[in-house]
Amino acid sequence: MTGKHDLVLERTLNAPRDLVWKAWTDPALLKQWFAPKPYEISEVEMDLKPGGVFRIGMVGPDGFDTGHGNPGCFLEVVDGEKLVWTSALAPQYRPAEGVGEGCESFPMTVIVTLADAGNGKTNYRAVALHKNEADSNTHAEMGFEGGWGKCAEQLEELAQGLAAHA
Predict the structure, then answer these.
(1) 21-61 confidence digits (pLDDT tens)
(2) What beta strand segments (E) does 14-144 contain?
(3) Cβ contacts of residue 27 below 8 Å, gap of 6+?
(4) How many C-beta neighbours within 10 Å does residue 115 have?
(5) HSE-up of residue 145 (Cα within 13 Å, Cβ side)
(6) Are 14 and 153 in contact (CB under 8 A)?
(7) What distance in Å separates the CA atoms of residue 20 and residue 63, rounded to the nearest whole number?
(8) Most Cβ neighbours (<10 Å): which of 102, 105, 159, 161?
(9) pLDDT given at position 63
(10) pLDDT class for 69, splitting at 50, 70, 90?
């Protein structure tokens, strides 16, 4: 399911799906990989259930700072397989208020799916859905492919580290 205003990142990660899922769903682990270095996630709040909060704050060496971040909302959580959240809605499906900087400057919905790829690997797919071409273009110009690609590399590295210490 992709439309003309969607941005898609697909990778096969050399890490087991359960550890990739753990890295996505444990706030302390998410902070370690979800921003392309040298940017960092300064705080995470998540309640993994439909209607639950998903909020991150991001900072960067260039002075970029989203503050506490605008709270988004999980729409779907399928354990070990799928996460869907949106910035268009706040927790409990309330309409979101205002916009921020960076990716918070436009509403989007993100669908992350994980599937076993065999041999301890994971098929990873992230789709960012946008309401129009302008928002999609803005996100692409901000570096969706490079930024989300770098984050996928960091996710893979973290999950590999978790596997090594398991």
Answers:
(1) 999 999 999 999 999 999 999 999 999 999 999 999 889 89
(2) 40-46, 53-59, 72-78, 82-86, 89-90, 94-95, 108-118, 121-130
(3) 44, 45, 46
(4) 14
(5) 3
(6) no
(7) 30
(8) 159
(9) 83
(10) confident
Cα(101)–Cα(37) distance, integer angstroms: 18
Q: And the tokens for 122?
A: 């994971």
Three-state secondary-structure class, residue 24: helix
Going along the chain from its start, the domains and CATH numbers come out as: 6-164 (3.30.530.20)
Distance CA 101, CA 8 (A): 21
Three-class secondary structure of residue 18 per DSSP: helix
β-partners of residue 82 are: 78, 113
122 vs 114: CA distance, rounded Å = 6
Element (H, E) at 13: strand 6-13
Q: Is the pTM of this model over 0.90?
A: yes
- Distance of alpha carbon 65 from its chain centroid, rounded? 17
The pair of three-digit structure tokens given for residue 143, joined into one six-digit string = 């570096």
| Distance in angstroms (rounded) separating the CA atoms of residues 101 and 84 | 21
